[in-house]
Amino acid sequence: MLRNKVNKGLLIAALSVSATFSATFSATFSAADSCADLGKRLTFGANGTVTDSSTKLTWSRCNLGQAWKGDSCTGNSAKYSYDQAKAVISASKSAEQGYRLPTLDELMSIISWDCGEPAVYKTWTSIESGFYWTSSAAFGGFQNTVLMTTGDEYPMNQDIEAWVLLVK
Length: 168
What we know:
The chain is of the alpha+beta class. It has 2 domains: 1-28; 31-167, Mannose-Binding Protein A, Chain A, CATH 3.10.100. Helices cover 31% and strands 23% of the residues. It contains 5 helices and 9 strands; from the N terminus they run ααβββββαααββββ. It has helices at 2-28, 35-41, 82-90, 93-96, 104-108, and strands at residues 42-44, 49-52, 58-63, 67-69, 72-74, 131-137, 143-147, 152-156, 165-167. Strands 1-2-3-9 form a 4-stranded antiparallel beta sheet. It has a 3-stranded antiparallel beta sheet with strand order 6-7-8. It starts with a helix and ends with a strand.
């Protein structure tokens, strides 16, 4: 009998945390309803930025390790451990320009599951079909990432390498 009460208590606690997360997420940013809707929100600048009219965020059009030249990203799109990514960002001009790792909510705001693979607007050609770091901590020392192949969130060990997209 005690075991059932404990299990019910854990279930209620888990549902409460889940509901709190869902309410927090939907109150800030949410994934686009459709790929077409996402495309209407995004402005791809000639200066290598992407501006989102809904969230008012400005994204780097290129992954960390690449540079915008003319009309495309050049250089190698590199993967970094979480600590490497933070160090490279802080040592670069990007940090001086106000760029940083996005939060989980921010990165999820550029996701549309019906865009295909990766789950972002197709004009954003530098996005890889893989894991991207966020600045949002997960449980137990893990860091939240987004798998851009599907647009799903995954807690990740900080020693694993993932791509980085910057925002300001």
